[in-house]
Amino acid sequence: MSPGVAAPARVPAPAPRRAPRRRPAPRRAPQRRRAPTKRSRAATPAAGIPVAAVRRTAGAVGDIADSGLMVRLTRGRLWIGLLAALLVGIVGLNVLSLSFSSSAGRLAERSQTIERENSVLRAKLAQRLSSKRVEVVAASLGLTVPDPKDITYLSKDDGDPEVAARRLESGELGGAVDFAADTTVDATAYPTAAP
Amino acid sequence: MPTIERRIGLLFAAFLLLLVIVLARAAWLQGVRGGELSADAISQQTETVTVPGLRGRILDRDGEQLAVSEDAATVFATPYQVKDPEDAAARIAPILNVPEEGISDALSDRDSGFAFLAHKVDILAAERVRKLDIHGVGTLPDSRRTYPQGELASQVLGAVGAENEGLTGLESHYQELVGGTDGEATITRDALGDTIERDTVQGASNGDDLKLTIDSEIQARTEDALATIGGTYDPKDATIVVMDPRDAEVLAMANWPQLDPEEVGDASEEQLSNHATGFTYEPGSTFKAFTVAGALEERAVKPSTMFNLPPTIQVADRTIEESHPRGPITLSVADILAQSSNVGAVTVGQELGAEDFDDWVHRFGFGEPTGIDYPGEEQGIVLPLEEYSGSSLGNMSIGQGLSATPIQMAAAYSAIANGGRLRTPRLVVKQGGERVDPPPSQRVISERTSEQVRKMLEGVLEPGGTASEVDVPGYTLAGKTGTSEKAVDGGYSETRFVASFVGFAPAAHPQLLVAIMVDEPKGSYYGADVAAPAFGEIATFALPHLGIPPQ
After folding, report:
1. Which sequence positions of B are flagged as catalytic?
2. How much is the pLDDT for A178?
């Protein structure tokens, strides 16, 4: 080791060159894309939805998984309750649907039965209203078909309708009649017969 | 920590294995056995049922229901599925009101896969059977025809078969209109047998209503009158047609013997026939009115023309005599009709001549069906002019040697009664709510001739006439009696007769016409005795009933 050789002075090693600190690039406003001179394939009406919209939607859906609500749900016990509620809802809907179908079927069956019973009742009613039966009942009440010579026929004069109308109105013939009133007859009301 | 992870791993593996098993099973059930199981499920859960389409109603002219349909059921069994046939029969028979042995026999046939236990039973009875819940016994929907008026107009209405198809009468003639169409529905049931779903595969459609010209009250009186004849003279068969001569609408058409429309299986041929349209007979003296009408129209005679009539008249090889022997007599044409002189009618026929006589027979519609809206109408037999023998004109002038149906007689007499127009008789006024136009009429004789014959026929019911005992107080009647021997083996029977009468009222303006035919009455056989009184009986009720005032 020679004395004339001076030991190199210890100099601090130069600091490693730091990469020049870059200022964060100012956010560039999203460049507006120029409208292509030719329509891009994705944006053609044939494709239906533009590519950008699809990307945005996909991004939004992807973000749901990272959303706070989902994180809290999946890391807590709330999701168990939520799933249970969903399952109960699905089962409930199915049960309701089956129940409605069943009710509709039962009602259709019932309607059919009632229609059939109606046809039987109509036939029975026709039998009860048959002239043969009515005649028997009438005879039991003492009513008979009059002999032709017992029937009196009246000849009419020109003034008769007027006289009849006047007598009806005055109540002389079985109670007054209000000609202005509704004279609809209740077809369901059965006449009663007294012996 | 590793132990926990290992356990979780095992648990996961177990769940995974279970999931694989479930998926494999699902794939097996749905992929491999899916079709088979689906078919099984459909056959077990779904049932295709027939929904009966009811036949339309048949109504009388006033809307009275003569025939209606109602739902019913057929009870069936699958005998080999019935565990205790004796017990099942003992429970079912009282409900169906059938002998227990019949049910028991049907259920005991273990080789049989299907047996009918009862057809067309009341649905309430069928429901009671269903509620017995006997395995192997079931019910099928069906319908049945009922007749609220019982036997009224049964031959006219006709009968319906087991498949609800019209077999006879109007039920058959208007099958397309009245017959309903059955539908189909699929019912899906759950494991308990309750209905989950009901799908209509094809809707059932009910038949249309048919409104008749028949007046059920006049029909009932007519049947009563016929029953009186049946009870008194015990004929082989008999029929009465009541008609409004103005428009040839049939107000009543009755037959003897009567028919229970719900028991047609046990009915005889006579009961099933509507003799008014399907029976031909030699009309005898009732035909003389047409001989006279033709002669008047041809101006061969006048009502006052007098004839010197011998006791008998020889026509070729045949001697025609009166029904009651008499000496020579002088009678006017009117008297000939009133007294029903055979010799006189033959004489009038000879005045008319064979060619004109044949023409008039056809003009009045004899020899061809009237065209009434009823199936199986007979046309009668009229000898063609070229086949006339020497005695044909003489025979036919008095209604022998030709045959006609009662409805032909009624239609032809209507032409005399209504002023001379021949109309097709009809039984239906409305089909499915739509009015049926009356068929066109044709003039046969002049109003003058019509009036002259009507006047002459009044004499039949006046003192000295053959039906003078028939009377309806307040009304002038007209008509003609007929008694004819039945043709048997190329000759005429001396013991078998057809008694008939055709009458109308009021004589001057007829609104009611009654034609009566009684085949082979026992005891008396004269039309005046057997048939004419029924005219009086029917007219006594029908004239006031129709609101026809006395003169």
Report:
1. 285
2. 55
